[in-house]
Amino acid sequence: MDVNLIFRIAAIGIVVAVLNRVLNQSGREEMAMMTTLAGVVVVLMMVISLISNLFDSVRTMFRL
Amino acid sequence: MGGLLIITASGLLGILFSNRLSSRYNELKNLRRFMQMLETEVTYGATPLPAALRNISNKAEGLISSFFVCISDSLTDRRFYTLWDAWVFAADTALADSSLQRSDIELVKSFGSILGGSDRADQKKHFELFYLQLKHQEDAALEEIKRSSKMYRSLGFLLGIAVFVVLV
Questions:
Q1: Residue contact B148–A26, C-beta within 8 A
Q2: Which of B3, B7, B26, B91 would be a feasible disulfide site paired with B160, CB 3.0-4.6 Å?
């Protein structure tokens, strides 16, 4: 398990939050929405293999 | 090291964008000022246009100066049949690498069709109208500066940091 991944996700979260504030303040709500979505997608890409690992382990654990 | 480069590069890009906004405003303001000089030359001095444009280009600096020089030169060299052709040519060449937007340049071009086409009183009216339109563009530019100059600046740095975080 890679701890660096957690820090990276945290950093992306902070950056996206600040971007969201800045864009909202200058009246570009739809762009702020898009950046938030992009952040979610990037983080999802990072963790998707881990999630699939988790599902696999659950499946083997319960012999499904 | 590479991350620092990425962050500074995108930060500078953001600063560049926000500077372009403010330089558009300055250029519009300069343009209006020298158009007022041109009006004085035309309506009170009754100077012929090539000479008037030459006079103003001596006083102006930067892009506006090269714009007027371009018109004046092409008029004295008789490169075009009408002032309008010379005006449009100059607007396309001299103002192309300015921070002015397409709508600003179109506005300037449309004024070229009127200049030198009627008597003094009529010219004066058209000048007034042109100032009004320029003022309108200026206000829009100022509004744009207020709204998004700061945003571009912080956006550049933040996107740099985001790319850095994703890559490292």
A1: yes
A2: B7
